[in-house]
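Ex. 9. Protein: Phage holin family protein.
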Amino acid sequence: MKFLIKLVVIAVVIFFATNILPGIKVADISTALVAALVLALVNMIIKPVLVILTLPINILTLGLFTLVINAILILIASGLVPGFSVDGFVTAFIFGIVLSVVNYLVNRLIKK
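Predicted structure tokens for Phage holin family protein:
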């Protein structure tokens, strides 16, 4: 149940990010749901491998390199989902920060 709540919240954030961040385009809310699902799958499958491979850089930057990894994963997800596009790395980086903050807040609210 928690996974579905997170998925819907992230889909809503993706859908409304098109109004806030220039460079993010989503066709409709169903595309945002698919993008959220693909992003969750990419985070579960690819992110652990990337984090382990970049562990020395991550340690040197005190974990801030994880934001770069998140931006790369967002770009991968935008390439996989038709109707969802992110124009560039900087946009994906900012969008990754927004998603991280929202995910943190959702996790805090769901635990209570």
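Check your answer against this statement. Helices lie at 2-20, 29-45, 47-53, 55-60, 65-80, 89-111.
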